[in-house]
Amino acid sequence: MEAKQIFDDSAWAYVLTLLPPDLEETAAETKALRRRRHVPNAAALMRMALAYAVSDLSLKDIAAWATSSHIAKVTAPALFYRLRKAEDWFKVVLAKLLSDETTNHLVPGYKIRAVDGTVINGPGAADIDWRVHLLCDPITGKFVSAEITDKFTAEGLARHSFNPGEIVLGDRMYATARGIHAVRANNAHVLVRLNPYTLKICSENKEIIAVLDQESQVPEIGIKEWKVLIPVPPDKNGKNQKQWPLSKAIDWMPARIFAARTKTKKVIWILTTLSDTEVSAITALKLYRLRWQIELLFKRLKSLLHFDSLPSQQGPTAKSWILARLLAAALAQKLVDPAGALSPWGYGLHEIWIKA
User: Where in the sequence is the signal peptide annotated (predicted)?
Assistant: First the structure.
């Protein structure tokens, strides 16, 4: 979404049709417009928030533009206060915008989701200020869920809400027993890069398997598969998820591990909770390649919307700015037809999938 679509009256009239029709109701429920004063309606507040998010203008500039355009009569401090109070409202509107995103079923009966996160730093920051956690549909390249947390909140599958019939793709940081257990509790499945240092892997007889010691069994060409069990640790506060006795496991999750070699003979380890009747080994490896699409999504957000350049370190307003920029990205998804998933070589992944 470009700034001119916010500043131009005729373009804004069209953007309004893409927003949820109950802006007034949700603004009232979340107390974003508890005192209207010189802000006439929720649409005016949303327009100022989006203008601030997608342009390089300061709050003072946005307030001056809104006043001269007869959108609202506000000062920069008043707008700062409004944006700070609108944080919960932005979350509600964003959730509504993303709730109706359609999904292509690459695997019949399942929806594919890729999970990842990124960090955002304010100007002059020496450390992380915020974390953004996204779920995306790797087939369409659209994000379908978003959450913003402070720097003290780690990445993890348990952060997200999943629906039955979803297959969640993640890199090795998401390969934890508690995270996988949270996904399975919602009747969803995982397909992640295995991290043998954060997971205990056991045989079907509940005996520990040293995964890395099995590397010699992986053929030069083809895929080696193991059926395993993943014990779920009991202590949520344990520093190391592997330093506990198996007798304390609160649950055992059936899973499969695949191993294949790259052209350089390096072994790639993949874990899934899907059974062999649901997804074959070769299909699982093809699916995992789609995880790269969420990396491309973050690159688009950062390059096109300058998503990683906070205008201010002031906490509440910074979070509102991030949410407003995510709202702009969600609206942009509705303004354009999805190009679909692309490989790094420029080919459509759906075409590659069919030919493979």
Answer: none
